[in-house]
Amino acid sequence: MQTVMVYSEAGGVSKTTTAVSLAMTAAESGRRVVLIDLDPRAATTKWTRAEPMGEGLHIGAILGAQEDPIGWAKQLAAPSAWHPGLRVIPSARGLSNREADRDDFAELRLKASLEGLDADLVVIDCANRQGGPLTLSALNASDTVVYAATASDSGVDGVTGAQRTIEAFKRSRERLGAPVNLVEAGATVTRDGTGFMSYPETDAIDQIRALTTILEPIVPHLSIVPEVRLAGEWYGLYRKGNAIREAYTEVMRKVIR
Ligand SMILES: Nc1ncnc2c1ncn2[C@@H]1O[C@H](COP(=O)(O)OP(=O)(O)OP(=O)(O)O)[C@@H](O)[C@H]1O
Ligand SMILES: [Mg+2]
Questions:
Q1: Rounded mean pLDDT of 77-86?
Q2: What's the CA gap between 58 and 52, in Å, rounded?
Q3: In order of start, what are the domains of the chain with their CATH numbers?
Q4: Entry pTM
Q5: 57 CA to middle of ligand 1, Å?
Q6: How high is the mean pLDDT of the chain?
């Protein structure tokens, strides 16, 4: 099983779009996928219209568990109407309380919950936090990180901050003599605009390329994305969404083992 966290320390840089798209294109290619919404703002949950398996059975149940939540992800992963190969662990607003959670080993609960999960791939949609318990949970649970970036200054800043956090995480693990399994796959880049690439856009892409591998192709900017999000649908159902689906499918093949 591969666990991919989609991460950036900037807001609105396409983390959620990338996480949902990697999960769905992987499901469409025959993988058993679990998509985890780790953002208290719950954009992935709203977009996929994920409903918890029961009262309170959202990701907060794992992160706030009083006992060791070993293997809980399997019970919390809810089937998605989008695809038989896709399950979603929804988020909830109360999750923001977890930011104050300083319980011992709280940051290992997400990893423990994934034990024995009957999936080929887990994709985690992260919140745009600079470190903190939610990010630490994802860092401990994941073996692959994908940065999401727009071709803009905030896209570049988000990757820079994320890399700094990952370096600090790795250093602290090494100091403990603990193995570090997290590998950087690179960055997905989406455009903010349409038409010809402007100088600031190409400049931002060059800066991202200096930081990490760009997972080509650059994802085009199309209005179908915000439209389907409002409707709770997968853009792959629509002809207008084809270019984006093809782009993310190519990216998925580069990221997923
Ligand atoms: N390829 C695209 N084409 C058009 N719009 C897009 C595309 N990718 C993302 N968007 C839009 O950009 C906005 C931000 O995207 P998204 O929510 O994926 O970013 P995010 O990094 O998860 O944001 P947040 O920090 O709020 O979690 C959304 O309104 C989304 O619909
Ligand atoms: Mg998001």
A1: 98
A2: 6
A3: 2-255 (3.40.50.300)
A4: 0.97
A5: 26
A6: 94
